[in-house]
Amino acid sequence: MTASTATTSVPQHVDVLVVGAGLTGIGLGYHLTTLQPGRSFAIIESRDAIGGTWDLFRYPGIRSDADLYAFGFGFKPWNKDNAIADADEILEYLQETIDENDLGSKIHVGHKVVSADFSTADARWTVTVERTSDGERFEITAGFLSSAAGYYDVDEGYTPHFEGRDDFRGEIVHPQHWPADLDYAGKKVVIIGSGATAVTVVPVMAETAEHVTMLQRSPSYVMPAPRKDPLPILLRKVLPDTAAHKITRSVNINKQTLLYNASRKFPKQMRALVRKVNIKALPEGYDVDTHFNPDYAPWDQRMCVVTDGDMFKSIAAGKASVVTDRIVRFTKTGILLESGDELEADVIVTATGLNMVPFGKIPLHVDGNKVNLPDHVFYKTLMVSDIPNFTFTVGYVNHAWTLKADLVAQWTCRLLAHMDRHGYSTVTPTIDDPTMTRSPYIDMGTGYVNRAMHLFPQQGSKGPWVVAQDYKGDRQLLGKDPIEDSALVFTSATAKTLATAG
Predict the structure, then answer these.
(1) Does an H or E element contain 264, and which?
(2) Of 170, 271, 285, 380, which is the most buried if we count CB atoms within 10 A?
(3) For the chain, first and last CA: distance in Å?
(4) How high is the pLDDT of residue 499?
(5) How many Å apart are CA 399 and CA 280, to the nearest integer?
(6) Are 124 and 145 in contact (CB under 8 A)?
(7) Which cofactor does it need (predicted)?
(8) How far apart are CA 194 and CA 322, in angstroms?
(9) pLDDT digits (tens, 9 = 90+) for 422-479
(10) Residue 489 in contact with residue 502, Cβ under 8 Å?
(11) DSSP string spanning 282-341?
């Protein structure tokens, strides 16, 4: 795609400005094109390429951790054999979506949002944008602003302090900043971490490294999953791609829902099941309880997917190993552990997590006053109290991200249509229950979540202010329930008088 980077090609005003040209932004662009065909919009992206996560991360083996029949768009069938797809396959899929729906002219890469201010009097956002190629700044006005920036800090990953880091004579790499020329063939590699990134990198690096050690402070739940899903491959032989995709998507979503609900209702049984699967996949006599039996219940944190059991195979072949211990310090030649052992390393990979940030770190203002996000509350997990004409997308923690992205995009288009029909220029979620209590947006034991929740708006204890992480419920709440809500306050475009839809 030849996305524009020239200032003159970025519109001075649009009806809807979308921030982020990853999977979420491209999906929203599709829905705006099809459901709001007369409305002008632009998608701006701070990086120099589309794709978001799938272009940002370049570590070996990067792939989805959900099957593409659920993780892909609901409107575009995934017709490749790999259900668990590599980043380049996902980028190709996104490019196809852009080309098929003529979205290229709407996407402007290399443009970073510096700040955004909503004027109540003018019923519009003024967004300050910096062109990254030369640092020049200019303004775009928009009637509506939508954040498709996700919640990763694209500038910097998370690395805790390691005593003696500067003493280490080898290379230290964070997966978010993977050097294109890193040579680890025939070398000893230690990967610090036990999450999705670590279990992805281990088997790929083990193919050419002398040995790879995954060093973890505590275990995570790890489950094998087939790269290829036999169901759609069979269905495509007898049905059109669209029908095969629809059936597979429904089956896989229900399967994931069943797994999650069973984990929450029957944690002991699910723990035993995961342990049984791990024992079968690992060498006889392997210490599963030390390395793969967490002290928390299944789905208190996300489960890690091991494609075709590749990490287990690397362990069985002696190419990789897992060490569960705590780090005392880095040394000249490796890492000293609390047990007294020292792991030798030529390369250390700090797969220690990500930094979460709300709305791409964009400072939001209303009538010149900066919004302090933690003072606000999420509305239906797609708007924020007291911030007019603004939606955002953050996916599920227990389902594929795109399931939520599709629902948010469709709801946003329904909202815009509703405002047109009634002549409204602004919509603002307003807390209508002073007795409502508040709690963190996401309640999980995951480190990168807990480190960041103080930066985000909170969730409420009742009504549309609850963050339920419930795809089935959101299909009703966002897909079918009326837009009208006592918590939404609309302003007339003509008289500028408040009107609450009820």
Answers:
(1) helix 241-265
(2) 380
(3) 45
(4) 43
(5) 26
(6) no
(7) FAD
(8) 9
(9) 999 999 999 988 889 999 998 776 777 888 899 999 999 999 999 988 999 999 999 9
(10) no
(11) SPTT--HHHHS--SS-TTSSPPEEEETTHHHHHHHTTSEEEEE--EEEE-SSEEEETTS-
Q: Is 166 exposed, middle or buried (0-12, 13-18, 19+ CB in 10 A)?
A: exposed
| Dist CA 145 CA 149 (whole Å) | 12
Query: What residues does 228 pair with on adjacent strands?
Result: 82
pLDDT in tens, 15-35: 999 999 999 999 999 999 999
Question: Which candidate, 261, 262, 347, 301, places its Cα nearest to that of 60?
Answer: 347
240-246's contacts with Cβ under 8 Å and 24+ in sequence apart are: 241/77, 241/79, 242/77, 244/77, 244/79, 245/69, 245/77, 245/78, 245/79, 246/77
The torsion of the CA quartet 478, 481, 485, 488, rounded to 10 degrees, works out to 20
Mean pLDDT over 313-339 rounds to: 98
3-state SS class at 460: strand
Instruction: Answer for the pair 345, 257: CB distance below 8 angstroms, yes or no.
Output: no
Residue 111: the pLDDT is 97
- Alpha-carbon distance of 420 to 417, in angstroms, equals 5
For the domain made up of 7-155+355-500, the CATH class stated in words is: alpha beta
pLDDT surpassing 90 at residue 402 = yes
Q: Give me the residue spans of the domains in the chain.
A: 7-155+355-500, 165-350
* Sign, CA torsion 417/421/424/425: positive
Distance CA 117, CA 121 (A): 12
pLDDT > 50? residue 502? no
Spatial separation of the C-alpha atoms in residues 382 and 411, rounded to whole Å: 9
Fold that domain 165-350 belongs to in CATH: FAD/NAD(P)-binding domain (3.50.50)
Beta bridge partners of 4: 108
Identical fold between 7-155+355-500 and 165-350: yes
Which residue shows structure tokens 């995009």? 409
Per-residue DSSP letter, 162: -
Contact between 467 and 457 (Cβ < 8 Å): no
Spatial contact of 488 and 428, defined as CB atoms under 8 Å apart: yes
pLDDT surpassing 70 at residue 494: no
Spatial contact of 471 and 404, defined as CB atoms under 8 Å apart: yes
